[in-house]
Protein backbone atom coordinates (compact mmCIF):
# COMPACT_ATOMS: atom_id res chain seq x y z
CA UNK A 1 0.00 0.00 0.00
CA UNK A 2 1.34 3.41 -0.97
CA UNK A 3 0.71 6.39 1.29
CA UNK A 4 1.27 10.02 0.33
CA UNK A 5 2.56 12.96 2.33
CA UNK A 6 -0.91 14.47 2.70
CA UNK A 7 -2.26 11.16 4.05
CA UNK A 8 0.58 11.04 6.57
CA UNK A 9 -0.12 14.62 7.64
CA UNK A 10 -3.77 13.78 8.33
CA UNK A 11 -2.59 11.41 11.07
CA UNK A 12 -1.14 14.31 13.12
CA UNK A 13 -3.49 15.89 15.64
CA UNK A 14 -4.36 19.47 14.64
CA UNK A 15 -3.89 21.86 17.61
CA UNK A 16 -5.84 24.71 15.94
CA UNK A 17 -9.24 25.86 17.19
CA UNK A 18 -12.01 24.71 14.83
CA UNK A 19 -13.62 28.15 14.61
CA UNK A 20 -10.38 29.74 13.42
CA UNK A 21 -9.40 27.20 10.78
CA UNK A 22 -9.09 28.53 7.26
CA UNK A 23 -6.59 25.98 5.97
CA UNK A 24 -6.43 22.28 6.71
CA UNK A 25 -3.44 21.24 8.76
CA UNK A 26 -2.18 18.91 6.05
CA UNK A 27 -2.13 21.85 3.61
CA UNK A 28 0.25 23.83 5.81
CA UNK A 29 2.48 20.81 6.41
CA UNK A 30 2.59 19.85 2.71
CA UNK A 31 3.57 23.38 1.62
CA UNK A 32 6.09 23.61 4.47
CA UNK A 33 7.78 20.32 3.51
CA UNK A 34 8.00 21.34 -0.15
CA UNK A 35 9.46 24.73 0.81
CA UNK A 36 12.07 23.23 3.14
CA UNK A 37 13.13 20.72 0.47
CA UNK A 38 13.71 23.75 -1.79
CA UNK A 39 15.88 25.34 0.93
CA UNK A 40 13.44 28.06 1.97
CA UNK A 41 14.51 29.44 5.35
CA UNK A 42 11.91 31.82 6.82
CA UNK A 43 8.15 32.03 7.28
CA UNK A 44 8.01 34.92 4.78
CA UNK A 45 9.93 32.86 2.23
CA UNK A 46 7.58 29.90 2.75
CA UNK A 47 4.61 32.14 1.92
CA UNK A 48 6.42 33.57 -1.13
CA UNK A 49 7.40 30.07 -2.27
CA UNK A 50 3.81 28.87 -1.92
CA UNK A 51 2.48 31.81 -3.91
CA UNK A 52 5.06 31.27 -6.64
CA UNK A 53 3.97 27.61 -6.92
CA UNK A 54 0.22 28.12 -6.36
CA UNK A 55 -0.79 26.29 -9.55
CA UNK A 56 1.27 23.26 -8.48
CA UNK A 57 -0.27 23.21 -4.99
CA UNK A 58 -3.81 23.71 -6.33
CA UNK A 59 -3.31 20.68 -8.57
CA UNK A 60 -2.43 18.52 -5.56
CA UNK A 61 -4.48 19.97 -2.68
CA UNK A 62 -8.25 19.79 -3.25
CA UNK A 63 -10.08 22.99 -2.34
CA UNK A 64 -6.96 25.14 -1.94
CA UNK A 65 -7.84 28.74 -2.80
CA UNK A 66 -4.81 30.60 -1.47
CA UNK A 67 -1.55 29.99 0.38
CA UNK A 68 -1.50 30.49 4.16
CA UNK A 69 0.24 33.67 5.30
CA UNK A 70 3.66 33.69 6.92
CA UNK A 71 1.94 34.48 10.24
CA UNK A 72 -0.30 31.42 9.85
CA UNK A 73 2.71 29.17 9.23
CA UNK A 74 4.50 30.67 12.23
CA UNK A 75 1.49 30.26 14.56
CA UNK A 76 0.73 26.74 13.41
CA UNK A 77 4.27 25.40 13.73
CA UNK A 78 4.70 27.13 17.09
CA UNK A 79 1.76 25.07 18.39
CA UNK A 80 2.98 21.64 17.33
Automatic annotation (TrEMBL):
List residues of the H repeat-associated protein N-terminal domain. Answer: 10-80
Q: Name the domain of life.
A: Bacteria
**UniProt protein name:** Transposase family protein
Specify the species. Answer: Phocaeicola vulgatus (Bacteroides vulgatus)
Amino acid sequence: MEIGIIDLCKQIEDPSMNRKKVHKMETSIYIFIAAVICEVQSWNEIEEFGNSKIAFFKSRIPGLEFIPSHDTFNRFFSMI
